[in-house]
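---------- Forwarded message ----------

FYI, see the MmgE/PrpD family protein record below. Original note from H. follows.
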Amino acid sequence: MDNPLIRLADYAASWRTAPMPAEVEHHARRALLDWFAAMLPGCLQPPATLLASALASERGGGGAFCYVDGEAGGIRHAALLNATASHVVEFDDIHRDSGLHPGGPTIAAALAAAQARGASMETLLRAVVAGYEVGGRIGLAIQPSHYRNWHITGTVGTICAAVSTGVVLGLDATRMAHAIATAATMAGGLQQAFRGEGMSKPLHPGHAAEAGALAALAASGGVTGALDVLHGPVGFAAATSEDAGKWDQALAGLGEAVPLITGITFKNHGCCGHIFAALDGLDALRAAHGFGADDVAAIHVGGYGPTKDICDRPEVSTEQQARFSLQYCAGALLVLGGVRVAAFTPERLADPRIRAVMPRVSVSLDPELASAYPARRAARLRVTLTDGRVLDHFQPTRKGDPDAPLTDADLAAKFRELAVPVVGAPPAEALLEALTKGQSLPGRVPLLARARAA
């Protein structure tokens, strides 16, 4: 077997000068727009706000913008805080087949490096494409077993960030390989961090962005890494998955197939993606049969592994727990009409109407759906109504997945919904225009909450 790290590094470095088809650029801009949509509301919430305050004295000089506190600083500082903010409200993108949330670490690190180094929008987009590709393919090599204990956005996301930063820094293939190698040994992120209480989960992409940026900066200065670290007998794949990695499968078509960024899932709900198929199915049933929360006697969801293992949470007390509770999110959908940012305010967490639905919702593992995961994220629903009707529905995919994608209009609407309350309508429109059509990097984006506080 060829060394997968070398092949991935060669590919990543080629994006400094490779032709950029219009379709690929379009999808990279969609990813950038979606990242800002997810990141901006996260700037106003912990742990991003708490982390910015705790690290204020660590800022240092530099031209990278930290959107959380509105100040400029070094690449690593901005990458850490912006990536953390991008994961707070659970609206960030997904590479479905690996389960990776690539945008948080990849874009935060690349944008910070691009701003600090005065790079172009074209360079940023190239960096994003490369980071998504390398991270997604490594994810394919180690999944699904990796996800039993590890949070792939924290682990593989570190390598995504190293690659995207490396493209901005202009690393050649040799130094890119060392950046990947160093990033792999600094990767981390445990499943337990989001199966209980605490604020650690958004720090996973935050750490990944910072550590990946560090790996690329180190490689640019000549620091070397172990080039067999991905596939070696005690390397990354062996340590974090059930074998040394499915590398032949993961690398098939590298450099020849359409880049992975053209098939990214953009979230249509503000919660864990493993709940989405159930929510889409419940919404379809509600639209077809016109029932509300008070009409439901029972909801049963058959899902794939993580839907049961991670999201079967009949009791919740915190915002994070609620975002990972199928019971809570089903109640929010029926009561509020959607699972958006407003569904997780303290008022809604205590809403007796949502709480009343939760005991009526049960979840089980469907072996057929489990065997199709992660390439397919489906759900089977049975809704029993108080009038005795029993409604069955199979939801084969999720709205936002590559086979049911959000349109450009959908994505723009999502951006406005999430950005306007944070920055105001005119600045949001200007940013949308810049991200979708502009040739200059996005810069400072003043937040309304900071303006009011001042």
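H. also flagged this: The mean pLDDT is 96.
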